[in-house]
Structure formats: C-alpha cells, structure tokens
Amino acid sequence: MPELPDVELYVEHIARRTRGQPLTGVRFASPFLLRTVTPAVKDLLNRKVVAVSRMAKRIVIELEAHHYIVIHLMISGRFRWGDPGAKIPGKLGMAAFDFPNGSLLFTEASTQKRAQLHFFVGKDSYRTLDPGGIEPLTATPKSFFEALTRESHTLKRSMTDPTILSGIGNAYSDEILFEAQMSPIKLTKTLTPDEARTLLTATKKILTWWRDKLISESDAFPEKVTAFREEMTVHGRFGKPCRRCGDPVQHIVYASNEANYCARCQTEGRLLADRSLSRLLGKDFPRSLEELELRKASARAVVEDRADAVVVPKAPRPSAKKRASSVARKRTPST
Predict the structure, then answer these.
(1) 288-297 per-residue burial string, b: 16 or more CB within 10 A, e: under 16
(2) What does CATH list as the number for 4-129?
(3) Sequence-ordered alpha helix ranges (H) in the chain
(4) What is the CATH number of domain 134-290?
(5) Pick from 147, 138, 141: which is nearest to 198 by CA?
(6) Cα 67 from Cα 47, distance rounded (Å)
(7) What φ, ψ does residue 155 adopt, rounded to 5°?
(8) Strand partners for 67
(9) Pairing of strands 250-254, 116-121
(10) Residues facing 257 on adjacent strands
(11) Burial class (CB in 10 A: 0-12, 13-18, 19+), 249
C-alpha cells in the first residue's frame, strides 16, 4: 500500500500537471470505485484544480468552489499519466480524469477492488474521511507520546494504525523502528518520554528522507510505486545481511502483514515468534540468533549424512546369452 512518502510523490506530480487546469471529463471502467452519490460528475466538470494534497493515505484534489475528489489507493491502486483522452487500461483500469494537457489514469491490480473514490462539495467536507491520526511530520514530542501511549499496543501495530499516526504502513514502520533501534513488539505503555522522542526523531528522518528522495529522482510521472525498494534497510530483506551489523534480517508474519527487524540491533539478539510458528515448534523454537544458527548447522549436517549414506545400486548387467540374443534380433531383417 502506498504510504506517506509514496502518496506525497503522487501529490507532487499530479499537482505539477493539473493545478490550474479544468477537469474536462471523468470516465469509469468499474462501477465499484465511486462510493458517493452527490455531487454528480457533471457538477465537477470544467472546474479548475486549485490544489492537490494528502490526507492520511488519501489524495485530495480540490476544484473550484470547494468541490473535492478524494482517492484512496488502498493496497494495489496506482496512477498513470497519459495523453489527453488516453484509453483506460483494459485489465487494471478503474477510471480516468481528463484535463486539456493529459489524462490521469487510475488502475488497481487487485481482484478485490478495495480502492475508493469519493466526491464532496462544501469547504473541508471531505474531512469526514480523516481517520484522525496525528501527522508524524508535524507532531511534537508531547503529542506523539500521548498518541502512542493512549492505549497499550505493540509499536508495530500503533505506528500502522491510522487513528493514531497518519500515513505510515507496513514498510516504513519497519524502517523507522530499525532506525530507532526498537523492537516492533515493545508495548507502547512501556514507552518513556525519552524513547518516544527518539522514535519521533527516527520517524521524521525516515519519512522526510524517502519523500525527498522519491520526488527528486525524476521529473517523469512515477510509474513504479512500490513498498519494496533496494535501499531499504530491513523491509523486504528477510534473510539478507543487516546493513548495520551484518546479521541476517528476521521477520514475523501475522495475518496479511509482516514485521521485518534485526534481532541484534533491535531485540538484544532475541528472535521474535509469530503465533502460528511458536505454536507449531513449541519448545523447539530458537530464542536467539546463536541458537538459530546451531539449529541450521545441525539440520545441514543431518542432510549431508543422509546424502552420504544413500547408495544408488547399479543396474544388473545382462548375461552373455541375453546380449547375444539381442544382437541377433537387431541383425535379422524384417519381412
């Protein structure tokens, strides 16, 4: 799912191309995308784009006279920029927003079609969709600490909860927690003000660095917005060396999400167990990196011993009589 840096990237490029341009048409390829009845599409046409902004993980396109287009990409929604009147992509296409200088094409790769489009009229009327989380880039140490400690959850869950923090998801929460050297399962109720300040510093550093990097990479409209990027430190790097200490990156999987972390840098060398894996292995689950490496070495030794013990029997050689009979049959001409 596109998160704060990715959504800000889209906001920047959509604003460059549409600000001051009138919306000349809206075309739909899927009836499931639009979630509002009023205002009607015709009420939005020919109104110029005043501003493009982000609200949590949603993109808000403001038109003249306080008319708004609000788009939530969900997990697999993406944008493309095409020539004026460009055809909506056949398989993935959901909608197109037409302007005199080009068309903003909206696609979704998922078959579940979770992406959402809302139309609003009236000043700030779109804010009914705001989940209420505080903006991490403008949060103060006090507001950040209060938001996180209001309830007791793991840091990973709280950082990805849009009612607590705005715009952070699975990928960047991994990067932030690694930067802060904090365990993803640390309970927020145990967080001290100093730890919260450290976490807020890491949050602003990671989100700002990635936002600025993505925006500065190219003037072309972003075609490949993804949650997995080569420069990331732990997210999507399970089993690869930690960029700080060299130990393999670990992960825990829960529901449809996962948390990637470095045991050496974030959990004092302890391995975290997800519920299903710990139930499966029970007492056999390794508790540290050293124990994990010993288990791996032991397993490799067992496999190698079994491979050495396997003797492949040779096929028996035919007797001289059978070989002579076979040769005679080959030499006899067929009738």
Answers:
(1) ebeebeeeee
(2) 3.20.190.10
(3) 4-18, 41-44, 141-149, 155-159, 170-180, 193-217, 263-266, 275-281, 289-309, 320-331
(4) 1.10.8.50
(5) 141
(6) 8
(7) -60, -40
(8) 63, 121
(9) unpaired
(10) 254
(11) buried
Digits of tens for pLDDT over the chain (335 positions)?
A: 899 999 999 999 999 999 999 999 999 998 889 999 999 999 999 999 999 999 999 999 999 999 999 999 999 999 999 999 999 998 899 999 999 999 999 999 987 889 999 999 999 999 999 999 999 999 999 999 999 999 999 999 999 999 999 999 999 999 999 999 999 999 999 999 999 999 999 999 999 999 999 999 989 999 889 888 999 999 999 999 999 999 999 999 876 678 999 999 999 999 997 655 555 455 554 555 555 555 555 556 555 666 666 555 666 666 666 666 665 565 655 54
Tokens found for residue 79: 């944008």
Domain residues of the chain, as ranges?
4-129, 134-290
Those residues with Cβ within 8 angstroms of residue 89's Cβ, 6 or more apart along the chain or in another chain:
80, 105, 107
Candidates 23, 73, 18; CA nearest to 44 is 23
127, two tokens: 């804010």
Between CA 314 and CA 5 the distance in angstroms is: 63
Q: Which structure tokens are listed for 222?
A: 């972003």
Cα separation, 194 vs 142, whole angstroms: 11
Model pTM score? 0.82
d(CA 53, CA 47): 17
